[in-house]
């Protein structure tokens, strides 16, 4: 069940994370204003970025199989969601509440990931041990 929740959080996070990466790439394109530099950076990013993103996504998918992996993956998802929402809010500067509806999947993903972190911390730590019982005080010797 936790693995399915983890995968659901991962799927919900992807649109906003891709949007934030697009915003950062567009900002870079606007800042450079050099067609050849933009082309060079695109080829460099495509050559190194696509395999890196594929490996990161594969690692996050495989993390669903293990409790410690889900814990680390859920922490990464929370960080990605917070960063993506922050970048999207900073770049778009919404004026009305209806303009932030596209962020709801990322917020839902973050909420699911936080609950997974709490659940997985309990699993990784193990069940809480009962407090040690105090031994009875020895009675004074009778005379």
Task: Summarize the topology.
Blueprint: H1 2-32, H2 35-62, H3 67-92, H4 104-125
Helix pairs in contact: 1-2, 1-3, 1-4, 3-4
Feature tags:
143 residues, mainly alpha, 4 helices, 75% helix
Question: How would you portray this structure in words?
Answer:
The protein has 143 residues and is mainly α. Helix 1 (2-32) runs antiparallel to helix 2, helix 1 crosses helix 4 and helix 3 runs antiparallel to helix 4 (104-125). It is built from 4 helices and no strands. It has one domain (2-125). The model has no long low-confidence stretch (mean pLDDT 84).
Largest sheet: none
Amino-to-carboxy terminus distance: 65 Å
Q: Note the run of SSEs as H and E.
A: HHHH
Q: How much is the average pLDDT?
A: 84
Form type: elongated
Give the helix tally. Answer: 4
The tally of beta strands, per DSSP, is: 0
Q: Please identify the structural class as seen in this structure.
A: mainly alpha
Low-confidence parts, pLDDT < 50 over ≥5 residues?
A: none
Radius of gyration of CA atoms, rounded to a whole number: 24 Å
- Overall tally of domains: 1
Helical percent range?
A: over 70%
| Fraction in beta strands | under 5%
């Amino acid at each position: 069940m936790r693995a399915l929740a983890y995968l659901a959080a991962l799927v919900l996070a992807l649109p906003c994370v891709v949007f934030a990466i697009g915003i950062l790439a567009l900002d870079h394109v606007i800042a450079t204003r050099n067609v050849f530099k933009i082309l060079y950076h695109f080829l460099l990013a495509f050559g190194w970025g696509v395999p890196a993103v594929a490996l990161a996504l594969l690692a996050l998918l495989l993390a669903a199989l293990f409790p410690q992996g889900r814990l680390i993956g859920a922490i990464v998802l929370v960080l990605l969601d917070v960063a993506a929402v922050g970048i999207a809010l900073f770049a778009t500067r919404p004026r009305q509440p209806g303009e932030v509806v596209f962020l709801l999947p990322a917020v839902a993903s973050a909420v699911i990931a936080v609950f997974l972190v709490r659940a997985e911390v309990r699993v990784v730590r193990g069940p809480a041990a009962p407090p040690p019982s105090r031994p009875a005080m020895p009675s004074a010797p009778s005379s």
